[in-house]
TrEMBL record:
Pfam families: RNase_T (PF00929), TerD (PF02342). Gene3D superfamilies: BRCT domain (3.40.50.10190), Ribonuclease H-like superfamily/Ribonuclease H (3.30.420.10), sav2460 like domains (2.60.60.30). The keyword Transferase applies. This is DNA polymerase-3 subunit epsilon. Its EC number is 2.7.7.7. Residues 301-330 are annotated as: Disordered. Keywords: Exonuclease, Hydrolase, Nuclease, Nucleotidyltransferase, Transferase. Transmembrane segments: none annotated.
Amino acid sequence: MSSPGVLPREVAEAFPFSYAVVDVETTGLSPDNDRVLQIAVTQLTADGALEKQWTTLVDPERDPGPVHIHGITAARLRGAPRYADVADHIHELINGRVFVAHNARFDWDFLSSEADRAAAHFPSHQRLCTWQTSAMFDLPLPNLKLGTICQYWGVSQARPHDAADDVRALVEVTRHSLAYASFLHLQLPISRPWPRNGYPPTAPRANCPWKYPGRHTTGESLRQGMTVVFTGPTAVDRTLLIEEATEAGLAVMNSVSSRTSLLVSNGTTTTRKAERARLHGTSILTEAQYRRLLSAIQPGVAKQSPTTPPAAPTVKRTPKPTPNRGGPLAGHRVIIIGGAPDEAHSTRDRIVESGGACAVNLTASVTAAVPLSGHQTDQRWARVQDSNLLVLDQRSLQPVEQGHQSTVVHSLTTGTPMVTESEVAELPRGGVTDVEDAPLIVTVRWSHSAAIGDVDVVAFVLGDDELVGDDDDFCFYNQREHPGGAVDLELDTIGQAVANIRPSALEATSRVMLAASIDGDGVFGQLGAIELDVRSLDGVSLIHATLDAADQEASMLLAAVYWRNGSPRFRAIGQGYQHRLETLAVNFGVDIEDSPTRV
């Protein structure tokens, strides 16, 4: 039995999904090592009506962890069911529905891991994160914590960190989010999660503290910093070989590339690694030969650590994030409605020259709009008028009189702003700014109204020679996590991709390079601008950039994160190319079968 619907019909028609709103409390932060303590699930229909509601404590079969956060003691857990005892019921509540949670990847990963332990199939294939949805709206908030978002929408929280109360609040936040997305004509950022079954996390790759000295030549000694790859059966356990190599100062890689110093193989010639080694002319040693050379390894040249203070005192200078803050559009975020690609491109350039910032989608932060040819046929134009935004003349970029002022009050789409002055760094193409040594969440967005196929967002972890060390340093659709922890990608989301970057996992001379490519025969002229939204783990907005590529360009370097003068730095790039992703990858040293020549 469901309650009456609370959302307008147009919302249900725009998003004809059923939802399972979920929250879990856990013993810690690792889905692979920690356990679920409490779970709450509430089912919602497309019109926001309540269906089944259920919650339970769960016996984690271990210590409950940080009781000061979740308040769940061992005494409260006495007699609670194990996850395996309730797995079927939980999965029945979730099956066939969009999985909704705040920081949804966290809850989804925990429940997926619990399902693995219970030898059960986790039946969730679509996920909606209220953190990401609120970020997409660009709500005027100091952060994207659940409590802050609840306060914006006027939703009460009686017992934060209690799964049942958090789900009750999340139901209300979800309703507001659905209504607001419909009002703005935005698509929901629903993702299709990368399955955890059969995809265990890769052990982090240890950063090698020695500079890469080049490839090994037969008859020469090994030198610290050389890269080694193992293939085939070995007399000594592979794990021990890797530990020995790392302790001796070698960089252990998982695949062979043109930069691999040597391959260790006991006569195995048919593996892909051996084939690549022969292709690149890489030195191939037996295990015995390798271990003899390892015992007499020569010292290498130490890399500079990003946390090592410079030898002489320096003055840290934060780069200027924007060249022009005093123009007539300073403080405005402007959206362009309608227009041909070249017309929209040139208008965005003039907006930036006038001190404004550009938006690719209609969001809460947009303050002005420029109507170009054909704007009347764009559904967003009515919303621009309903929102009483400033309308600018397309030639002069001066305000024009609107035909009407809307007096409509949208109770479900109107919140309470909590910040009045933004401290976000607005970066132009080529702009740089220093950031804290803390994880960065970089969301890459494009227009929801663009008639184009897929946009592939990828990441390269590059050395001081601007090349990958091996193919593990190329993160893309089928290889989303870097083994050293520098970056992992969240893909398969409508209208956006997310790169989670950890500057602390980067060496002093390496960098993470983000890039995008249009799938098929598409070009950026059909897509329009790309937007970069950089936030902290708590959702504090740090950096914003809007980047254009030329009409016929098919790939673009978006941004780089690297160390400079003891501080992580973020650079917005915006450099486009006519070649596609495969050529871009080859240019950065990725080995691709039947690949084109480097250009």
